[in-house]
Queue: 4 jobs
Job 1
Amino acid sequence: MPVAAVYVGVGARRGVPAAEVLELIEQTLAEAETETEAGAAGPPRPSALVTVEAKASEPGLLEAAARLGVPLRSYGADALSQVAVPAGSSAAALASVGTPAVAEAAALLAAGPGAVLAVGKRKSARATCAVAYGPA
């Protein structure tokens, strides 16, 4: 499926290092291999990293976005809590940032109407990640 944009939703615990976030993103994008609009196969290149507003100033997320050369965008917990996600809810995320899902919800919300969740939530020790495609 050709895609117009690739959004990587990320969640993180306070103090997560950028290296851990980047490793998780790399692994998750490798799972999201798809045909690009140009017809080339391989891991997709993200258009943006997306998270909950409460984590938008987390240094590890900001550094990961900068090293990937993409913006770090954020949504409020209320907006994210309205997005249905396959992984279900996380009590830890709800208690910490006010929404039951961050990575999948952020990726889907950023990708917009017609979004496809390419890779559901993946976890490392201190981060979560999911990939959604926006329609071509």
Job 2
Amino acid sequence: MANKLNIKKGDLVQVIAGARQSRGGDRGKQGKVLAVYPERNRVLVEGVNRVIKHKKATQTQAGGTAGGRETHEAPIHVSNVALVDPKDNKPTRVGYREESAERDGRTKTVRVRFSRRTGEEI
């Protein structure tokens, strides 16, 4: 069963755990969420947790060889990132509240995410 995560694809997040940038780590870096894997509790963040993959040299149709070392982002655990508040660009927790919206003469309750830091809607 997949877990419910507060972070969605396209959100701006900040790494809050791990080694500092001065020591070669990713803590403090901000990036956009490229993919969410709720079954593994992991998110893929742009520019964070970059790993080197070695690719075997193969011949292309043009006659050249393609191979070598490629860098890719690897998934990071969702507990190690926090959503960035759109108002002050600092990490915040996510809250949910129900608001009533009126559409076509009908009132409908909608769940919206908001920043616990400033109360602003995300």
Job 3
Amino acid sequence: MKWPARVLVLLASAAFGVVHATDWRMDPSASRLEFIARFETVPAPGVFKDFDVRARFDPQSPADGRLDVFIRVAGADMASADINKAIAGAEWFDVARYPQAEFRATEIARAAQRFVARGTLTLKGVQQPVEVPFEWTPAGEGATMVGEFVVKRAPFRIGTGEWAATDVIGPDVVIKFRVRLRKAER
């Protein structure tokens, strides 16, 4: 086989071997983003009521994917008007100055039977690397992402002043999510 024919065969093989990631959009009515802090020894749960997830992902080729999460932090709800008002303040989320948190994955990789999205979490003006493990379950024209990970609150200046110590409010916050996605229309 002469070199031009070999080049054509290689190009054709590459073209047919390319996997195209699917664009996904979140179904807000079927998605949930929770956080669980610890007050003394008791779990103190809350939810972010207003968030959005956008992904480009193919589980057969995760390295080609991307994941972007946008959270309107004023939508944080801990089931108490007084607590909600407090966590919106400067010592906690400071929603007046930092109305949105973001996670942008720069890498998605397979990790055993799951995946892990590695990227940057921007919260309260601070950027920190974060790893987000998740399970991916396809169903018809949609898919569900489920996962859980821990964020240290101190690097993000969440709970400052009298709340900086970790004896009353623990140092770790557990983030749990269940996100229903549907293929984006083109």
Job 4
Amino acid sequence: MIENPSREEMGQMLKKSKRIAVVGLSNNPERTSYMVSKAMQDSGYEIIPVNPTVSEVLGVKAVKALKDIEGHVDIVNVFRRSEFLPGIAKEFAEIDADIFWAQLGVENEEAYDYLKEKGYTVIMDRCIKVEHALTK
């Protein structure tokens, strides 16, 4: 069963975090991933677009995969369909980021169990922008 940290704990995580890699970030301003990432960028977070089909989003050069990011990543925020989460979870474990965050409506027990067994913090089916607004 998927169990998220409390809202208070999520707020603490967001206060400590600075770099957010966004898997599936679209360069279309109409898409939720774009709107949420722009709001987080406007709030002072460094956004790293992870999408092999675009060259840049929000003025930042996109990378094809998580492993292409230089330096430490605090949060990996995922905007992909739930069935893609197990593969993304494996990539996430390879770069040893701190928090795996699957966006509202996105969850997968296999990916959750895999990451929890490795000791990672996992949040699923929650909007990072909403949690940020409610806890700042």
